[in-house]
Design brief:
single chain; alpha+beta; Glutaredoxin; four-stranded mixed beta sheet; 4 strands; 10% strand; globular
Length: 197
């Protein structure tokens, strides 16, 4: 059983849903294909707006929802993290490099999300990337070197096109058996779909 997981490492909702996704996949013996995408390419094609261009009312309500979910899930979350938005390209390529080795790329992706939203760390900084990888018992130097490969940048572009072709318009999005689930608040539906597969 395969779950395609389209994400942005700096999305608070990817952070909030990441551990739940890991638990659901483990429960069902499913494999998670972690697929970082470039939202700056997704939004113009699907009618979305980057956060800074959204109406003030939407931006204000976003804080309300994040606080609710943080409390509901008992997960620490800084509503205005010091390093947000952060350039996530290198970190995303490290996650892809991890996938290519057959390692736990979901764990690494979740660690990057936690670094941004709970630990006030800058995932655009190389030392931070090395430290996060080390915290996951990974060879950060090797992953950082792999992230410099052009092929991984091309792969993120390909994954972004794939996401749009599959109907993805925001993150987190999960696809299982051809069915798309958008938002960490839809994980219970994904859980049910896996239960009946």
């Amino acid at each position: 059983m395969q779950i395609d997981y389209y994400l942005s490492l700096i999305s608070p909702y990817c952070y909030l849903g990441g551990e739940q996704l890991a638990d659901i996949a483990k429960k069902h013996g499913a494999t998670v294909n972690v697929k970082p995408i470039d939202l700056s390419q997704v939004f113009p094609k699907t009618g979305g707006l980057p956060l800074a261009k959204r109406a003030p009312e939407r931006q204000a309500y976003r804080f309300v929802e994040l606080a609710r979910w943080s409390k509901h899930l008992a997960m620490p979350l800084n509503l205005k993290p010091r390093f947000f938005p952060a350039a996530e390209g290198v970190a995303a390529r490290m996650v892809l490099a991890m996938s290519k080795t057959g390692g736990d790329s979901l764990r690494l992706a979740n660690a990057f999300g936690r670094a941004v939203w709970a630990e006030e760390r800058d995932i655009a900084d190389s030392q931070c990337l090395l430290d996060v990888a080390r915290d996951c018992d990974l060879d950060g130097t090797a992953l950082l070197e792999a992230a410099a490969r052009t092929e991984l940048e091309v792969q993120i572009e390909a994954l972004t096109r794939e996401a749009v072709e599959r109907g993805v318009f925001g993150v987190p999005s999960y696809q299982f058996n051809g069915e798309l689930f958008w938002g960490q608040d839809r994980l219970s539906f994904l859980d049910r779909a896996l239960s009946t597969a």
